[in-house]
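Memo to structure team: turn this sequence into structure tokens by end of day. - J.P.
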Amino acid sequence: PRALELYAQAAEQGDAEAQSNLANMLRLGRGTEPDPAEAAGFYRRAAEQGLAAAQLNFGLMLTSGRGVDQDEAAAARWFRRAALQGDRAAAFLLALLLLDGHGVAPDPVEAARWLLAAAEQGEARAQYRLALLFELGQGVPQDPAAAAAWCRKAAEQGDPRAQFDLAQMYDQGQGVATDPAEAVRWYRAAASQGDALAQYNLGVKCASGDGVARDDVEAHLWLSLAATSGLEAVTDAARRGAAALAARLDKDALAESERRAAQAVTGKPA
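Reply from structure team:
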């Protein structure tokens, strides 16, 4: 392909952007056979010229060991270089290495600083992990209100883990005032993305009328989905709950539950 040829020519002339773009094509097999080792070589050349995107991608290859020998210490160095240029994904990944002590000495305080830097740039994964640090008091002072605030930011960007945790916070009054209706709102958001714990909790809420109008059909559909999720923590309880509801629902109501379940899973009208 012409694009591959042009990138290759510019890359050999030392153009960092071309080197990075060529590496992307080689890594993904676009217009050519995938060649992770060749891709890593071009990422490195661009990274050494200071291109943050290449530093990030070369770090990812070092982390996974794809195309290069796995080397988390080297990955951390490249993530740091990209993060210092303001790359939010690199800041997040560096923070994970610092939290887990992979390739670097564990340092939750520094990890929290990088998570904050990424979170303030809108990185949802960093916002969620930062919320967990504030919840646990790891690397930062324990602060349930700050945990809830950052969890909300990630939840509003669609992170299902954050949506479920935020629902729990509203359920239990952790960092926010107890609000069953708000809990239902966030359980529903996570449940609609396939989160089995959220599906189970939403089913229980619909069955009891806590924070939402009681609706046995709605409760049955969410408990049925949780029961078939394969998540051991909820499958048995969800199966029992769904069976109890099914015993008092008529044929039309059960058919309506199945119709709604299909819509909930696909996001489209059944």
